[in-house]
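hey team, just a heads up i'm posting the complex here instead of the shared drive bc the drive is being weird again. everything in one block, sequence lines first with there labels, then the predicted structure for the whole assembly after. its two chains so it's a bit long, scroll down
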Amino acid sequence: MSAVAWWKMSTGLALAVAACAGGAVAAELDEVRRRGELVWAADQEGGGPHVFPAPDDPRRLNGFEVELAGMIAERLGVKARFQQGAWDRLPLLLGGVADCVINGIESTPVRRRDYGCSRPYFAYALQIVARRDGALVTPEMLVAPGPRGPWQVGVLSASAAETEMRGRDPAAVFVRSFEGTLDSLEQVRGGVLDAAVLDDCIFTFYADRFPELRMVGRPFNGGVYTVLTARDTPALGAAIDEALGTLVADGSLEALYDRWDLGGRQQMLLIRDSADVAPAAVPEFRELLRRVVPTLLQGAAMTILLAVVSFPLAIVVGLVVAICRQYGPRWLDRTLSVYVEILRGTPLMLQLYAIFFLLPRVPLIGVQLPPLVSAVLGLALNYSAYESEIYRAGLKAVPLGQFEAALALGMSRLQALRHVVVPQAARIALPPVTSDFIAMFKDTSVCSVITVMELTKRYNILSLTTGRFFELAAVTAILYLMMSWPLALWVRRLERRLEPPGTGPAG
Amino acid sequence: MIEVDNLSAERSGQPVLRDVSLSVAPGAVTVLVGPSGGGKSTLLRCLTGLAEFSAGSVLIAGHRLDAGPQPVATLQAVRRDVGMVFQQFNLFPHLTALDNVMLAPRVVLGLLPVAARRRATDLLARVGLEEHAGKHPSQLSGGQQQRVAIARALAMQPKVMLFDEPTSSLDPAMTGEVLAVVAELARSGQTMVIVTHDHGFARRAATEVVQLAAGRVVARGAAGELL
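-- predicted structure starts here --
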């Protein structure tokens, strides 16, 4: 086939595909009209003034974006239906679950490349917030280390504030990412963080709740919010954009912002004069890898550190619990069974949250542990409950005659356990224990809720800043496999070595 | 060496021993016989503190056991001086034959590895198993396992050896090899109490035979007169 023929054919093919896609697009808008609902996604955990549960009735939603979604839907001749999602993952709901995202999504080059972005509907800027009695007094201080090393700064995960702060000199600013907007403000109030950086309208909205905090300097690094739609639904995107245009033109958007005390007149000027953000270029895969792999490896190192430190602790605590329950007095068994059931019966994420966020507020014994220590403690305690049950089963499986034979030789109970019973129980427990170890490698990802930057967290941030969800997910999965696979092989060898010769494969 | 005085024991409310008295002189071999459930094994377990008793007392190897729970120190002292061989061998399956024999001298007596190894090697030779020192219990026959168990008990150099039906789970050929070891021990002057159903062996080895039934001593005497 000649080059010309090839070019003609591929062009024809491309046109055919585009025509089909165009048909699908129009169908998408028709589908919204037929359904009579515009499904818009947001995260009510993100809080005010955007979208938040009404204080008097948590089932009802409040927020200027709730009203905005209603106004856009009305212009399209349909009703608005809210779809909850995790804020940093909202764009992934597009196409299947939601028609659009309206939730303080900043217009960025990567988003303009990967999604349909409407005209701006709101202008924000970043605000630094610190304790009134804190060391941080001016924004300029954030370019050099503080009195106790790098400034500890909290941001909302995947927000423009996070991108801004992570772009700074790590020697001057140490960034901690939180899943909720208010978490970082709480940590600043508690003195754990030196500052929080967030969209100005959020702090304005919550300022009364945090009288100990003050704004440091004026808002900076402004940008605009956009309504996101999927790339392959341009007709829907255009309809939403047009609806926004009429809301601006007839003054109802300005009136909305005035009702919410967000300075309607100034907002109208800011979005009128905001410059268009150019879409980002698609990075070549090799270039992408070169940029992300070192950061992902850093995350993998943290994942290994968490598992390798937490698991031995879990083993020791679990063994002590199992032995006390099996051979100790009845009251101890009862007490420890409560310990085990509480740890097994509540989510690890909640336990980490309690250790990191709630423990410091307990009167008298309250102590604020650093994130890494909290993570290790949480993982170790949680897994100790599971390990103790495995050892208990192992201890029960060792015949009583073994314990008696050891006692009959003059050993103390402790010596009998140490030299005779526990080594045999350990062999029985080895396969389930090691499969738990591999499970822990994956459970470490939960630690991101208390700002520990392990592998999954690194993936989240990188995939959001680059927009390359699939490629990075593959790389991340490979990294996890590179950790767990050799471990599984090593365990199999260990099991073979520990098995007394002449016994079956089950030991 | 052993004085059992009016011993009574119960298990879950049921009497299993009633007013049992027994005396074993140093170097003597006492064989306990009688129907199953007659209390022979319980009596043996009372002698080394593995079972508690409700009344009476036991003097054994210079230690005294009384009714009810006994102090841990007393129990350990008794067990250091009283060896026990079980029907099911109860060898430690994760250790080699040599390590099975070495463990208690090292852990309980604090022997250095070199000394414990020498003692264990000698004892395995005495029961005819020096070739099998490196094997695990699962690689040994029942008779070999029981001989290792005897060597393991002897490694503590006990003043008294107790045997609880040592050949009941063995076939006749293996029974022979184990009893040969026990007979050799008897000749060497080891004080022993043996529970067995093997009347032929009792006749050959016993200084005295004691017959228990329903928890009571129903007969005692020289093996020749009783069996």
